[in-house]
Structure formats: structure tokens, C-alpha cells
Design brief:
Strand 1 and strand 2 form a beta hairpin. The protein has 3 helices and 8 strands. By secondary structure, it is of the alpha+beta class. Strands 1, 2, 3, 4, 5, 6, 7 and 8 form an 8-stranded antiparallel sheet that branches. The radius of gyration is 19 Å and the shape is globular. The protein folds into 2 domains: 28 residues; 142 residues, Protein Transport Mog1p, Chain A (3-Layer(aba) Sandwich), CATH 3.40.1000. The longest helix has 28 residues. It starts with a helix and ends in a 5-residue tail after the last helix.
């Protein structure tokens, strides 16, 4: 009896994994979207899609990375903000001397069936160089996306992130739930 239960449990887990596998397997073949001016690299162990800006218009050296996951329930905005406070505390605790962290106000946007939470961060090194980063978490009917955009220019960080967010949200509509 116990062996029968184990076999059924293994079969159920296998079916669950196989139902997610087609969408996730496509990630390794080619990027779900490509943006002109960016080169692309996929890191299979972390399932991270990394995009590196190579053009002036997106500010060379800017990056956009994202991880695609199965959909999950949308947490409340207050829960998201509480999680951000924990992340901020962890950053401050492990920060280096001479590095200044300026955390922006978390934001929530709803757009055509998607909920997007965003949290900006400016890092200023002791030598005066600044880096702007925006972390986005997207909840949709068919997908959950974690996207981080960074640049030496705050407008480029925002614009690059928006381009990828809109593209990924449009692409995700083609996925079967």
C-alpha cells in the first residue's frame, strides 16, 4: 500500500513538472523577446535571462535581467512594501564603507490584467559613480516575472525596464495557463 502511494505521489509530481516544462524549456532555446541594441545570454542554472546594452540609445553598460516563473497569487501592496523593508535592511547590513544607498518609494501599477510592483535603488560608490536599479515584480494570469534593470543613467534604467516589461507581458499572453 505504501509503495502504491509513493508511486502515485511521484507520478503526480512528474505530471506537475511536465505541465510547466514546455514554457520553461522554451527559455533555453532563444529569448522570449529580443530588444535591438541588447546582446543576450541565458544562465540555465538560475533560469536567468540577461541582456546587455551595446548601443548608445540604451546607454552602453546598462543591463536588464529577468526570471520567468509559473503564475502565483498577487500579494497585497503592503506585503510587498514590508518585504522591501527587509531587503533594504539586508542591503544596509552588508553594505561597504563609502557606499551610499538611496532607496526609492515602492510603486504599484495595474495594466491590462497585470499587477506590477517596482522598487528603485540608487547606489553611489565612494568614487562618486552612481548606478540606478529598479526591481520589478510582475503578476499575470499566465506568468510571474522578476525583472531587474540597471544603468548609470536613471532614465535609461527606467526606459530599458519598461521596454522589456511591455515585451514580456505581451509575450506571456501567448502562453497557455
Amino acid at each position: 500500500m505504501l509503495t502504491f502511494v509513493r508511486i502515485n505521489l511521484l507520478l503526480a509530481l512528474t505530471l506537475i513538472c511536465l505541465s510547466v516544462a514546455p514554457a520553461m524549456a522554451r527559455q533555453t532555446l532563444k529569448p522570449p523577446i529580443s530588444v535591438k541594441g541588447f546582446s543576450y545570454k541565458f544562465f540555465p542554472n538560475s533560469r536567468m535571462h540577461m541582456n546587455f546594452c551595446k548601443a548608445k540609445r540604451c546607454v552602453q553598460g546598462s543591463k536588464v535581467s529577468y526570471i520567468l516563473n509559473r503564475p502565483r497569487p498577487v500579494p497585497s501592496f503592503s506585503s510587498f512594501k514590508a518585504d522591501r523593508k527587509l531587503i533594504e535592511a539586508a542591503y544596509r547590513q552588508r553594505g561597504s564603507k563609502g557606499v551610499t544607498l538611496k532607496f526609492g518609494k515602492p510603486a504599484q501599477k495595474k495594466f491590462k490584467g497585470f499587477t506590477v510592483y517596482s522598487a528603485p535603488l540608487q547606489t553611489r560608490l565612494a568614487n562618486g559613480i552612481s548606478r540606478y536599479r529598479i526591481s520589478h515584480t510582475v503578476y499575470g494570469k499566465n506568468i510571474w516575472i522578476s525583472l531587474i534593470t540597471s544603468s548609470s543613467n536613471p532614465k535609461a534604467a527606467n526606459d530599458n525596464g519598461t521596454i522589456f516589461l511591455v515585451g514580456l507581458m505581451a509575450w506571456s499572453r501567448s502562453l497557455k495557463k
